[in-house]
Amino acid sequence: VDGMRVTDKETMDVVEMVLVGKVNKEIVSLINQNGGQSVGLSGKDGQLIIASKMKYIKDKGNNQPPEIIDIGMVGQVEKVNNRVLMSLIENQFIPVIAPVGVGEGGETYNINADLVAGSIAASLKARKLMLLTDTAGVLDKTGDLISSIKVDDADRLIKAGTIKGGMIQ
Predict the structure, then answer these.
(1) Where are the beta strands (DSSP E) in the chain?
(2) Is the pTM higher than 0.90?
């Protein structure tokens, strides 16, 4: 919906199986086969990622009240408990984290991987965050890739409509 993911409870089970069970383990295996020492986690492990249900509020414009759209089991990061990560990092392990979080009631949430990466980087006080993706990325008005965006430029790009929909979250 407007670039935002929607995940119902049944799909959440599939998302968790694929991201945590298949994709995560494939990445861990590739890192280990190429000389790294990697461990796969989900945000549920050790309550690494505490999440809450994301609310999508759509501005309808023309002085109309905004519309609240239920996007299901989609979450947003509330807190990163990086004690588990620090233990792994201190012991030279590369953590590979599936972007699944846990709510206060134990519910599982599907979370945008970029948001998870940003939250984890912030919790670790990382100096840099690099995102690898299979999407084209943020494109300018002529369709060219914007390879680097500084925080100060983000508001301008949002107002110009270059960054929109799910990219804003």
Answers:
(1) 38-42, 49-53, 56-58, 67-69, 75-80, 94-98, 100-102, 108-110
(2) no
